[in-house]
Here is the input.
Amino acid sequence: MAQARVRLTPAGRTPAATFLSGSNPRPAHLTFFPKLTPTSLSAAAAANAPPPHIVVVGSANADIYVEVDRLPLIGETVAARAGRSLAGGKGANQAACGGRLALGPTYLVARVGDDANGRLLEGALADAGGVRTDRVARAADAPSGHAVVMLMPDGQNSIIIVGGANMEGWAAGIGSEDLELIRKAGVLLLQREIPDWVNAQAAQAAKSAGVPVIMDAGGMDTPLPRELLSLVDIFSPNETELARLTGMPTETFEQISMAAGKCHKMGVQEVLVKLGSQGSALFVEGEEPIRQPIVPATEVIDTTGAGDTFTSAFAVALVEGKPKRECMRFAAAAASLCVRVKGAIPSMPDRKSVMKLLESVGVE
Ligand SMILES: Nc1ncnc2c1ncn2[C@@H]1O[C@H](COP(=O)(O)OP(=O)(O)O)[C@@H](O)[C@H]1O
Ligand SMILES: [Mg+2]
Here is the structure.
């Protein structure tokens, strides 16, 4: 507070003075001091401070990859050619991406088990850089979420998922401290790998405090409860998820527009559709859609995590107050860098690389 007063000299056009005077400047020495309020002071301070924190509520999963020539038959044991365990889960992926890209902190609210996979996940998130993991709690009675991904030589895969703590670790729900963190956030990011009721609890807290809610549609393909959708500001499916949720075809842009229109009717005003190599499109109810082509990648190595990178990078730009079109460009550049590297979390770019890529491709 002392600092703000010092900076408010009559002649000054500091961010605080600009904020207080608005578009109709008044003589500062007459009106500024009596009009200071806690809100205006914090807004003034915010002009120089990093953007508010991002909260991701979602899954953390240990993904066990095994490379096999074929799937085992019943009763058979086959030897894998190779195997490794990597941190994944859409919540962890999106938090890792936020951690790399955001100027302010990114918190992950998640549940892991009190087991080796839980420690693997905590370690990987710490190594990813920038993620606040102190809200990742260990559930006493459930294993960490994990998946066995069987990779075949022809590129096909078969996956078995154990929901574990992601599904059963929430006990009575999100704790009061975490709800408070959500209420103070710049944006809340959700996906569908934890129970809908937990997402609804998080979204409700955000909504009550005017915090924008972005929901990535990836995860469970059960119908999305309308009460949950109505708490979401920006809903982000890929073309397949959009088709599944609306029961409509999404092969052409026309069809995608119609399906996004159905989402509007279902209660969500903004639909951010990810279209793979076709880029993305934002449908805001009552407005012309905004289309964003891909930022071409020099070489596409692995698109795993591209969707998570896109949604999370969009949230990062949104929290900085960037217009939606710019958020989409930032997200497309981040996702373009992601598809050039193998894996999900290991492939997520840092802010400097995204800015450099954006600079090199120029504005539209
Ligand atoms: N081949 C590619 N080259 C460059 N960017 C890509 C490519 N494929 C996907 N992307 C980017 O990643 C984003 C998300 O990928 P997408 O496949 O749509 O998501 P999901 O993984 O959810 O299916 C796209 O909107 C696009 O910006
Ligand atoms: Mg896709």
